[in-house]
Specification:
alpha/beta; 3-stranded antiparallel β-sheet; TIM Barrel; 3-stranded parallel β-sheet
């Protein structure tokens, strides 16, 4: 329906399936490709994203035109998240497969463990790491790039070499 609605303006489609709702992604891509092709949209590209790792990219490379990879490009253990609407006018809401309502991410710096809770929950021994930076289009916190750089370098290298 989207292809028929957009017609020649459609350059590509993005299939985004999170790990919690993943089915057979290759079969899903092949079905979409088939449906596009029989409707005359053979030039429409297919991009896949959503909890992709090197194994899934390798498995899909012959049926996909492009990949959106973010979570698994780090050598650190990732916190898998997406930016979705989860609350409207103070009322929790979310699309299927997502948790509704505002949340807080908590970090224990000793072992880099983390936890996710509703926004107004507290966890002893853990530090909240999300903070509001904008409200009604206004910036609440100005970024301090020098402090961010210093923190990054101290985590990557022995900070006594630089400071």
């Amino acid at each position: 329906m989207a292809a028929e609605t957009l017609g020649k303006r459609l350059d590509g489609v993005r299939l985004d399936t999170t790990s919690s709702r993943r089915g057979n992604m290759k079969a899903i891509v092949e079905e979409v490709r088939f449906e596009l092709d029989i409707r005359g949209y053979k030039d429409v590209k297919i991009l896949v994203s959503g909890s992709l790792d090197e194994e899934s990219v390798s498995e899909l490379r012959d049926v996909v035109d492009a990949f959106g990879v973010g979570t698994f490009i780090s050598s650190a253990k990732p916190i898998d998240f997406a930016l979705d609407i989860v609350e409207k006018d103070g009322v929790p809401c979310a699309k299927r497969g997502k948790l509704g309502g505002r949340k807080q991410v908590w970090r224990k710096w000793d072992d880099l463990s983390y936890a996710l809770t509703p926004a107004n929950t507290k966890i002893d021994g853990m530090e909240p790491i999300l903070e509001k930076v904008m409200e009604n289009g206004e910036t609440l916190i100005k970024p301090d790039h020098n402090s961010a750089r210093k923190l990054l370098l101290s985590q990557l290298f022995n900070e006594s070499l630089f400071f």
